[in-house]
Amino acid sequence: MKKQEVSGDIVRGKVIIEDDFQKAQYLNSRSFFGEVKGGKNPRLELSLFEALYLKEDEKLSVKKNSKKISVKAFIEKAEKVIDDFYSKYCVFKDLRTRGYILKTALKFGADFRVYDKGVKPGKKHARWLLYCADENEKMTWKQFSAMNRVSHSTKKALLVGIVDSEGDVTYYEINWIRP
């Protein structure tokens, strides 16, 4: 499909696409962006990470109070809603560009659920729980243990994405082993 920009509104930490729903549905059905909600009046709800990714790819324009906003203004708004938004976005963008599907993982206390390439969310479970961190961020063993236990109890591997000062990401996969 040729790049075709759809328009959405930033509302309470999400980007909602209602008017261009038919075009937006393509983003969901083919590339697994967002969640379809609303029954009789369907809409596509995108996470702020998904929205920025599509905005940078010129597939989405975002409005606030009926006015289009720039990428810079979008990031500023997202930073007010999500701690370390841009650092987490670097990880999201890197993995999404490599063909993985990422969905939020707030109920697991993680940043994202990561699905293997080609896996449709909802049809199979995510392979990893992903936690994003800045290279200068400190973590205690208790925090690390908690992340590892949640991943293990949900039958997912723990993936940690560390973002350096240039925005490059290094990944560490942590698994339980039995001696």
Task: Characterize this entry briefly.
The chain has helices at 21-31, 48-56, 71-81, 85-97, 141-153; strands at 6-11, 14-17, 35-37, 43-47, 60-64, 67-68, 101-104, 112-115, 128-134, 157-163, 169-174. With 179 residues, the chain is of the alpha+beta class. α5 (141-153) links the parallel β9 (128-134) and β10.
Shape: globular
Roughly how many Å is the radius of gyration?
Answer: 17 Å
Helix/strand-derived category reads alpha+beta
Low-confidence runs of at least 5 consecutive residues: none
* CATH A-level architecture of the largest domain: 3-Layer(aba) Sandwich
**CATH topology heading of the largest domain:** Trna Endonuclease, Chain: A, domain 1
**End-to-end distance, in Å?**
51 Å
CATH C-level name of the largest domain: Alpha Beta
- Placed side by side, the strands forming the largest sheet appear as 3-4-2-1-5-6
Number of domains: 2
Instruction: Please tally the β strands and state the result.
Output: 11
What are the secondary-structure elements, in order, as H or E?
EEHEEHEEHHEEEHEE
Mean pLDDT: 90
Number of helices: 5
Protein described:
By secondary structure, this protein is α+β, with helices and mostly antiparallel strands. It has two domains: 76 residues, MutS, DNA mismatch repair protein, domain I; 90 residues, Trna Endonuclease, Chain: A, domain 1. The protein is built from five helices and eleven strands, in the order E-E-H-E-E-H-E-E-H-H-E-E-E-H-E-E. The strands form two sheets. A six-stranded mixed sheet has the order 3-4-2-1-5-6, with helices on one face. A five-stranded mixed sheet has the order 7-8-9-10-11.
